């Protein structure tokens, strides 16, 4: 399979090599939805950006349980489990959290499976069934299983390591996903860490640096293949250290499609900072800081802030 690295390669060069992608997935009995997916044209894509800010809730699942984990401490091997830092483990199921978000009319939340075990997959599917069409799902998503989660009720699938494979962006894999589930159902997780004063996209439990750096060119190129971005500021995620304002500003300035930032929110003022730094174009998710996950930040206050933003500035908060 041909891979494509953006390191030292022009985005314009990549797009000019395959402006229209016709895939063998069309008409495949294994992927029936691909039959109605139009061919991908990089030149014909139009982008829209919402000028309001939403709170995107989350359900992180580890071994079937809803947990808040410092993501950068997560490993695959059993020997490395001693490094895992867990901020919170809930006695409520993933489905119960999904029902809460449905009651509060919060859409576009992220169900993330922090492992490929059967218990986590079952819990994720229960959450999707509890709030069909209201949640996105990520964690181990690939070409073979992506459509199954859509069929279980996910509005989108979230993908990172499958596309940024072995430190490089695999454009053929990305195009394959678009042909199976459609651009309108695909979220690219562009979580990143600082490297040489730039933001490098990281994969494989956020341990491996890719050679793709998050900047205006990359954000515009990848918008041809995704409906939204999800970006964790890995250096601050789960650590309650405050937000990465520089990263938020980059996203607000350059993302041509909806983008959600995660990482470091502690107090309500952080939400306003994200709103300002992101120019009203960057949504936010909050995890460990929320009282429903053992933190001190009121979930109800965050929902009220969300509703205020959706109504408009003339409403009292």
Short description:
It is built from nine helices and 17 strands. It is of the alpha/beta class and 317 residues long.
- Overall number of domains: 1
Instruction: Give the CATH topology.
Output: TIM Barrel
Number of separate helices: 9
Which strand order does the major sheet show? 5-4-3-6-7-8-11-15-16-17
- How many DSSP-defined strands? 17
Would you tell me the structural class of the helices and strands? alpha/beta
The share of residues in extended strands comes to: 15-25%
CATH level 1 name = Alpha Beta
- Percent helix: 25-40%
**If classified by CATH, what would the architecture be?**
Alpha-Beta Barrel
The CATH homologous superfamily is termed Aldolase class I
Overall morphology = globular
List the secondary-structure elements in sequence, H or E: HEEEEEHEHEHEEEHEEEEHEHEHEH
List low-confidence stretches: 1-50
- What integer is the average pLDDT? 82
Cα-atom radius of gyration: 19 Å
What does this 3D model show about the protein?
This is 1-(5-phosphoribosyl)-5-[(5-phosphoribosylamino)methylideneamino] imidazole-4-carboxamide isomerase HISN3, chloroplastic. One of its GO terms (biological process) is L-histidine biosynthetic process. It is found in: Plastid, Chloroplast. This protein is of the alpha/beta class. 27% of the residues lie in helices and 21% in strands. It has a 10-stranded mixed sheet with strand order 5-4-3-6-7-8-11-15-16-17. Helix 2 runs parallel beside helix 3.
């Amino acid at each position: 399979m041909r891979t494509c690295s953006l390191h030292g390669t022009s985005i314009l060069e990549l797009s000019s090599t395959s402006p229209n992608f016709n895939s063998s997935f069309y008409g495949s009995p294994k992927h029936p939805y691909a039959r109605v997916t139009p061919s991908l044209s990089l030149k014909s894509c139009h982008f829209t950006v919402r000028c309001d800010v939403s709170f995107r809730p989350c359900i992180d699942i580890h071994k079937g349980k809803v947990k808040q984990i410092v993501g950068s401490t997560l490993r695959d091997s059993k020997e490395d489990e001693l490094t895992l830092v867990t901020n919170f483990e809930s006695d409520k199921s993933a489905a119960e959290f999904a029902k809460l978000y449905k009651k509060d009319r919060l859409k576009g939340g992220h169900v993330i499976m922090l492992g490929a075990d059967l218990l986590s997959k079952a819990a994720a599917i229960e959450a999707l069934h509890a709030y069909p069409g209201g949640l996105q799902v990520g964690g181990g998503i690939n070409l073979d299983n992506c459509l199954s989660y859509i069929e279980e009720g996910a509005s989108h699938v979230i993908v990172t390591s499958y596309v940024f494979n072995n430190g490089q962006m695999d454009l053929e894999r990305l195009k394959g996903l678009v042909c199976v589930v459609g651009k309108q159902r695909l979220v690219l997780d562009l979580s990143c860490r600082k490297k040489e004063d730039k933001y490098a996209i990281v994969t494989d439990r956020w341990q491996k640096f890719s050679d793709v750096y998050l900047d205006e060119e990359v954000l515009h190129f990848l918008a041809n293949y995704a409906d939204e971005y999800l970006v964790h500021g890995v250096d601050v995620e789960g650590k309650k250290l405050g937000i990465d304002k520089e990263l938020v500003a980059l996203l607000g300035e350059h993302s041509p499609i909806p983008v959600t930032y995660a990482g470091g929110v502690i107090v309500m003022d952080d939400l306003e900072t994200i709103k300002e730094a992101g120019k009203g174009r960057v949504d936010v998710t909050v995890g460990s800081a929320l009282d429903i996950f053992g933190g001190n930040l009121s979930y109800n206050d965050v929902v009220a802030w969300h509703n205020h933003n959706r109504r408009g500035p003339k409403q009292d908060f």
